[in-house]
């Protein structure tokens, strides 16, 4: 297991991926729950087979991949199906995350998890880092990035922890409401801090 784990989270549109990639530029290994979540339902996977068995072939694209829009629609209208899906995928994602954390070889590792606190994965982390922006900016950035309706984005925001409770639980916070230079400076300062903390833990 990586000796020092940072749990990185933030609401939708907050810039978690941008922040994580800035840490990666410093040579830090990333374990990204979103990437793993795509892998466990990839074409030919057991996860995808079980989804197809449960909901039928309409959940698959013509080339046999997951039709994400169809699945989103299904679980949006049927909360019990969302629960079923979470019960299927969360253990798969957790297992693969633990495997990747086990193999991570950098001085510390960044574990990127959108629902870090909601799913109790903060328990795996030595420290938690929240990327923070205002709800107004969240809406604006996500609508522009994903080309989705305001209502859809608002539903996702409502399903996540509210901003204040995330901030209350965070050990460290990055403000991502400014320019990229300011973001880089914050990441570099935290990178140096985490190197020191990892060094202390391992000594």
UniProtKB/TrEMBL annotation:
The keyword Lipoprotein does not apply. Pathway: Cofactor biosynthesis; coenzyme A biosynthesis; CoA from (R)-pantothenate: step 5/5. Its EC number is 2.7.1.24. Coiled coil: none annotated. GO terms for molecular function: kinase activity. Keywords: ATP-binding, Coenzyme A biosynthesis, Cytoplasm, Kinase, Nucleotide-binding, Transferase. Its main location: cytoplasm. Pfam families: CoaE. It comes from the Bacteria. Belongs to the CoaE family. This is Dephospho-CoA kinase. It comes from Shewanella chilikensis. The lineage of its organism: Bacteria, Pseudomonadati, Pseudomonadota, Gammaproteobacteria, Alteromonadales.
């Amino acid at each position: 297991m990586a000796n020092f784990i940072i749990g990185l989270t933030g609401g939708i549109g907050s810039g978690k991926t941008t922040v994580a990639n800035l840490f990666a530029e410093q040579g830090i290994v990333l374990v990204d729950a979103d990437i793993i979540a795509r892998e466990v339902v990839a074409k030919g996977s057991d996860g995808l087979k079980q989804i197809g068995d449960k909901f039928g072939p309409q959940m698959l694209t013509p080339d046999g991949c997951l039709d994400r829009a169809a699945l989103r629609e299904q679980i949006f209208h049927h909360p019990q199906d969302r629960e079923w899906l979470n019960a299927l995928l969360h253990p798969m994602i957790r297992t693969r995350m633990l495997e990747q954390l086990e193999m991570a070889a950098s001085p510390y590792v960044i574990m990127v998890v959108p629902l870090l606190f909601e799913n109790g994965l903060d328990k795996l982390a030595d420290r938690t880092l929240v990327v923070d922006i205002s709800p107004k900016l969240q809406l604006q950035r996500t609508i522009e990035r994903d080309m989705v309706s305001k209502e859809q984005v608002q539903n996702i925001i409502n399903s996540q922890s509210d901003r204040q409770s995330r901030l209350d639980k965070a050990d460290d916070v990055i403000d991502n409401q400014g320019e990229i230079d300011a973001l880089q400076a914050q990441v570099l300062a935290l990178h140096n801090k985490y190197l020191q903390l990892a060094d202390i833990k391992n000594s």
